[in-house]
Amino acid sequence: MSLPTVELAPHRGPGFLQVVGQDRMKLALLLAAVDPLIGGVLIRGERGTAKSTLARALAAVLPPREVVVGCRFHCQPSAGDLCEQCQRRSQGGRTLPLEIAPTGLVELPLGATEDRVVGSLDLEFALNSGEVRFQPGVLAEANGQVLYVDEVNLLDHHLVDVLLDAAASGRNVVEREGVSASHPSHFILIGTMNPEEGELRPQLLDRFGLCVDVVGLRDPEQRVRVMESELGPTGSASGDESLRLQLTEARRRLPEVELPRNLVRAAARMAVDQQVVGHRADLVMVRAARALAALRPGPSGAARPAGLQDLMEVAELALVHRRTVAGSWVPTMAEGAGDQQASAPGPGGDPEPVQGGEGEQEGGGEVGEGSQSSSPGQAAEATSGRAGPMPAPPAASVELEERFEAGPLQLPHERRRRRGSGRRSRTSSQDRRGRYVSSRWQEKTTDLALDATLRAAAPHQHQRRSAAPAGDGRAIQLERQDLRQKVRQRRIGNLIVFLVDASASMDAEQRMDATRSAILALLREAYVRRDRVAMISFAGRSARVVLRPTSSVDLAERQLSRLAVGGTTPLTHGLVAALDLILAERRRDQDVLPLLVLISDGRGNISLRGDEPLREAQAAAAEIQRARIHTVVIDTSRDHLPVTQTPGGPQMAGYHFNACADLSRRLGGEYFALFDVTEQGILRPVAEALRRGA
Amino acid sequence: MSEPRSVYPFTALVGQDRMRLALELNAVNPSVGGVLIRGQKGTAKSTAVRALARLLPEIQVIRGCRYGCDPLSEPLCLECQQRRAGGEELVAEPRRMRVVELPINASEDRVVGSIDLEAAIHAGQRRFQPGVLAEANRQILYVDEVNLLDDHIVDVLLDAAAMGVNVVEREGISVWHPARFILVGTMNPEEGDLRPQLLDRFGLCVDVEGISDLSERVEIVLRREAFEEDPEAFQASWAEAEDRLRVQIAEAMALLPQVEVGRPVLEAIARLSIALDVDGHRADLVGRKAAQALAALRGGRSAGIAEVAEVAPMVLSHRVRSHPGQRPPDVAEVASRVLGEA
Predict the structure, then answer these.
(1) Is B118's CB within 8 Å of A280's CB?
(2) How many CB pairs under 8 A join A and B?
(3) Minimal Cα–Cα distance from B220 to chain A, Å?
(4) Which of B126, B170, B217, B282 is catalytic?
(5) Is A87's CB within 8 Å of B102's CB?
(6) Which residues of B touch A184 (CB under 8 A)?
(7) Searching chain B, which residue's CA lies closest to the CA of residue A270?
(8) Quick one: closest CA in B to A180, which residue?
(9) Alpha-carbon Rg of chain A, whole angstroms?
(10) Minimum mean pLDDT among A349-353, A421-425, B316-320: which range?
(11) Is residue B50 part of a domain?
């Protein structure tokens, strides 16, 4: 059957193969292109590592697809999932007319509104015909194509929810704004992110089949080639044609690639050994191995079975973002063939980094001496050099035995919005963020709720039409009083960041215990208001994010079950890590209301930038104040002086100087001195600060 | 709303017995009151719920009713009442129960329903256009990521669930219609908790975890791959198992009214709730129904202590009060102790 063809859209920019280096990223993208069921690729890395260039270049080499002529959702009968209209059209065994369309890249911009993403009521159609029709959105456009989300970690939470849902079910179900619709939405999800700017929710992380951590090229030779290729002709995309052919062939071969049982078993063993959550990793590994076998056929070009070698090559791509055990790990043939082996080496059995060290970027940077702290996100994540969420066995660990009974705590239910605090005035587009929940009439409509407006106008149409001049062809007569304004709801919640001194001192363990109890009590109280809590501890020579911003009691309980104490007091490191964390959250959501709670004696003794520790801490405090972050300082030094007697000036540094009170002044925050640090002692000032609306 | 053509067969799920049982019990006796499935990502939660749709029994509805009114239960919806008052004879017809999905970004007008735009514009009529709650009447209402649902939609759900009726007062429309639905939700607790009122609305609650048994994991991958490769052939190869379970559920439904729950068993249920210090009486009622459904599913004519013990964790785990700073009691353990005495 010959089909009408559509010209492939010209691709500007370098071809896929012209991009220098980044072989793992290329591999991951090609695998996802061979088998879309793998579930897309997440590319993590610093700026300027050709992340988006490659994603776009990939779209340019994707084989074209067969779509139903005239279908607004680009249904592909070969995908076995049709929209309602195509289902009706194909009833009774009728064949749907098909055409060849190029496979392209659909970008989901960060500022996209929800109605643009999922689709909405078709305004023009409604006004002209008076009928309700669904106007497809980005998720419809992306059906059968690549959906690209740059900086996916900065995407608004409610858009992430929608995206997850579609990615998981392959369908976009819309019950909003007067329309009820459902259509297939299968796409290759490609996301990029810079981990320095904030983490991705684990739920979304898991949805990406594969993940690569990219770093800039370290080989001068290759860097030179990057510069040269920049000067050379672009858009020529010389290898693209053959690559497209290769992909087409690989897709054709894919169903013929056999999947030996021992391969599946090896994948399952790796997933169990690496303590991944859920079962998606097994599936993804197997599919990726199979896609690789399809991409690299046997000698005669015929399909060959997927082998352990394939699995080894792709395993890390499926595990890097899912594993819960610390440490780097190398898949070995012996381990992969664990079927035959009585005892497979456990995780971390081999200290060699995998694939030239890619993979374990999160643990890379550390706010330690000599580190320039140019990588805040990484710094915050840093442990004692080992990557992963679990700390190394602590020198002194605190198992909480004695707990405090949380008394009734009156937390404010709504926090007042900050006013006149010098924040940038809101632009209209910012006002339009958030989920549209209902509508109301108001004097001047700035954010039109179309469906509600039409509904308001509907009952009057008969009357108005008869009053309208002849020849007015509009189906709907709108008047001013019909206009409705969208009421949007955002989850504006508090972000309470506890910054806790974990250095060795007499009451260190008590401090940690009390903080832990306070966090859990806050979370138990907080769920309705969508507040989130985070905890950073500092000790030794670094600060560590012990608990990422979360509203989950479960997660907090797990992550805070063992807290290490001991060592010196790197106060500045802690302040910087807290600032970075809050700024990262703010980048994603400008409306977040941060409250920083510092629990310390304020006597930092470790330098971050080579300056005097106290001076450094004061500078960091001033920076936090400039960022307009509200703070509460809980002074735990038992020999503190009354605030009124505090002499000024850093030259007075010493034990006769109330370091905490000074710090709290520089932070622009509130100061509390506690002789005994208890849960209630922490909660009271925090609740007070929240009530006052910071 | 059409469902995707290819649904993974329920019987082809590997492991996760408790989740499957909880769903089956709801199919046998919808008044068990739904189920909340909590678990981490990638543990076949949504797959199981969507697969359940294929196993649901038929119910009798009044022909032509937009709300699927039950011919044997009063009150009927306003429209049915008008039809009856107009002298029309209402005829019942069988309809398969469905899983109606509520997307988490649903807007209020589509959930509760609103004025029918086209009717208003073209005919000048004020007609009600039913929403998801109408569609879900006597069906399963499924909310994926239920903990992420907007608060105001949760309020609407709670209102309807409490009264069994959806009352609409908006845009010049004033109607009510029956809205009795079986609430099924899935959630990942790491993404946040559920409001206690909503939690209590779920009859049962199961926590699912990933399977660590290697051969089961292998089986999961192999079946999934076979399904993706050729959904129809895969469904065909499981058709027999599906039919068997469907028949089992249908027989259990027929048997259900005859399943007895003796007084000592009721007492044991009550003692268990007291021992665990749960709020209210919903736990007792759900416990009795769930034990009854379980006995029916196994072909028994009476529910005993064994059935109560088996369903106890599902009935009680989400109703046990958690005291700050205390580990919640292990329901299964308390159940075996309390019920052992009985």
Answers:
(1) no
(2) 209
(3) 8
(4) B282
(5) no
(6) 4
(7) B214
(8) B110
(9) 29
(10) A421-425
(11) yes
Q: Which CATH number does the domain housing residue B201 bear?
A: 3.40.50.300
For chain B, the domain total comes to 2
Residues in Cβ contact with B263 at an 8 Å cutoff, skipping those fewer than 6 apart: none
Whether residue B13 has pLDDT greater than 70: yes
**A41 close to A32: Cβ distance less than 8 angstroms:** yes
Q: Is residue B68, in this structure, part of any structural domain at all?
A: no
Query: What pLDDT sits at residue B247?
Result: 92
Greater pLDDT, A129 or B50: B50
Strand partners for A44:
A193, A213
Cβ distance of A178 and B211 shorter than 8 Å: no
Q: What is the pLDDT of residue B59?
A: 85
Q: Point out the residue among A114, A403, A475 whose CB comes nearest to the CB of B325.
A: A403
Residues A590 and A537 placed together within one structural domain of the fold: yes
| Residues of A with catalytic function | 280
Query: Is 70 exceeded by the pLDDT of residue A492?
Result: no
Together in a domain, A453 and A516: no
pLDDT for B211-241, tens place per residue?
888 899 999 999 999 998 888 899 999 999 9
Mean pLDDT (chain B) is 86
Measure the CA–CA gap between A208 and A204, rounded to whole angstroms.
Answer: 7
Residue A503's pLDDT band (cuts 50, 70, 90): confident
Candidate from B126, B195, B218 with C-beta closest to A261 = B218
In a domain, B247, yes or no: no
* Residue A405: both structure tokens together: 């009974």
Domain count within chain A? 4
- Summarised one tens digit per residue, pLDDT across range A154-190 is 887 778 878 878 887 888 988 887 788 889 999 999 9
pLDDT of residue B20 exceeding 90: yes
Please name which of A38, A14, A55, A388 lies closest in space to residue A214, comparing C-alpha atoms.
A55
Assembly ipTM: 0.77
The residue of chain A with its CA nearest to that of B322 is A524
* Residues of chain A contacting residue B321, judged by C-beta atoms under 8 Å apart: none
Residue pair A620/A575 in contact by the 8 Å Cβ criterion? yes
Residue A306 lies in a domain: yes
Query: Token pair of A129, please?
Result: 């015909």
Tell me which chain A residues have a C-beta less than 8 angstroms from the C-beta of B322. Answer: 524
CB contact under 8 A, A175 and B106: yes
Sheet containing B140-144: order of strands:
B99-101, B140-144, B182-187, B35-39, B204-208
Mutation to test the A interface, candidates B40, B218, B235, B321, most A Cβ within 10 Å:
B218
Write the CATH number for A301: 1.10.8.80
SS (H, E, C) A459-525: HHHHHHHHHCCCCCCCCCCCCHHHCCEEEEECCCCEEEEEEEECCCCCCHHHHHHHHHHHHHHHHHH
> Between chains, do A175 and B102 touch, taking CB under 8 Å as contact?
yes
A447 in the same domain as A329? no
**pLDDT of A367:** 38
From A186's Cα to the closest Cα of chain B, the distance in A is 12
Retrieve residue A580's tokens: 């970075």
Query: What pLDDT, in 10s, does the model give residues A412-423?
Result: 433 333 333 222
Confidence check: pLDDT of B184 > 90:
yes
Which domain covers residue A599, as residue numbers?
376-392+492-691
Residue of B nearest to A171 (CA): B4
DSSP secondary structure letter of residue B122: I
Nearest-Cα distance to chain A for B328, in Å, is: 12
The whole domain housing B264 covers 257-341
Q: Which residue has the higher pLDDT, A422 or A67?
A: A67
